Amino acid sequence: MQVVRAKIRLERCEMNVGKACAVFEQIESERYTDEEKLLAIREVIEMPTHNGITKDTILNAFKWLWDYTIEEVTECD
Question: Considering the entire predicted model, what is its pTM?
């Protein structure tokens, strides 16, 4: 397995917590850009508590981030 770390330049560096939570909860929506979703994930990570965010919402964000960053390739001999 080869892992490549990606670098991304985010044009806007700040997002308020309210918008971040809204984007995070709708992470699969096409209403938001990938940049907004990444900023929302970063903002949620930096929150002191996550009591208001459900486990399913967090798992959906993990799945979106996985799909965004990882290309799975199956190599069978």
Answer: 0.79
Any idea how long the chain is? 77
Q: Widest CA span of the chain, in angstroms? A: 49
Q: Using CB atoms within 10 Å of the CB of residue 40, give its burial: 0 to 12 exposed, 13 to 18 middle, 19+ buried.
A: buried
pLDDT at 57: 97
CA distance 28 to 25: 8
What pLDDT sits at residue 1?
55
CA neighbours within 13 Å on the CB side: how many for 44?
A: 23
